[in-house]
Amino acid sequence: MDIVGLGYMGLTSAHVDDWRTYAPEVLGLQVRPTEGETLFLRMDDRHHRIALHPGAQERLAYIGWELLNRVAWDECLRILQAAGYTAEIADEALCAERAVHAMAWVTGPDQVRHEFCYGAAFNTHTFLPGRPHNGFLTGDGGFGHIVVTVPEWTEELDHFVEQVLSFKWFGSGADIGKRRFYRPRRNHRTHSIGYSIVPGMLGLNHVGLEVNDLDDVGIAYDRVLERGYPLMATLGRHTQDPVISFYHFSPSGFPIEYINAGIEDSAAHPFVEGKPESLSVWGHKFNPDAPTPATVYPATESVGR
Ligand SMILES: [Fe+2]
To answer: Ranges for the VOC domain (predicted)?
Structure first.
């Protein structure tokens, strides 16, 4: 399957109103003016990259994978069917809400609703960050990354990720056997999705947003501390994926990793599929009082999707 990158994501939240100030003022995202209940957040000239839907629980609602064009999307549907996944095709109203030409979805063995789309709406020279900001790294690599918690790494999930989605393994960081990071094959990022393996648990572990300027990481760090959003980990530089980042809890109770200085070509990077002995070169001191992400729940809990 020829996925270009991470196109968009959706969350449900009981705290959507808190995001209306947090997203622009702390993260620098643009709040898209809309009359509906869903809050659309922009990182670039796309219609949106993150959608927050009002809901009773803090949950990852869907991940939107972007295919290059109609031909690649048709091929994607054939691959899903051949692998035994029955894709549901989005109607016109849902495609309009996602702001894409066409979309289909399946629920993966990770219990995540994976959406596959092409033809995302955009409007050039319209992105206006929510605060003075030098922009987000998006472009042809998609935006950032999403890390999903799963109770175990099964053969079915391995097949779905590596054979059906055709993702390329990047590594496990310093947590061999506990984490797995992947990227679409044509993508230059180190990872667009990661899996955190926690027995008995499912859900959203964290979301990574990548910005162009290290100073924007520093400014976000200041605002997180000033406004009292709990830290999950201090500023630091990772070892295998040598970004500078910090982790804090969003108003929805899941961590956001705010990132700068990612490597430009992951395929040529010497640490690809390497085995680092530490999580970070410096920093990333974990907050011992950090709560469990509100988006992670017991795998036995049935969730309506
Ligand atoms: Fe991350």
So the answer is: 5-119, 142-261
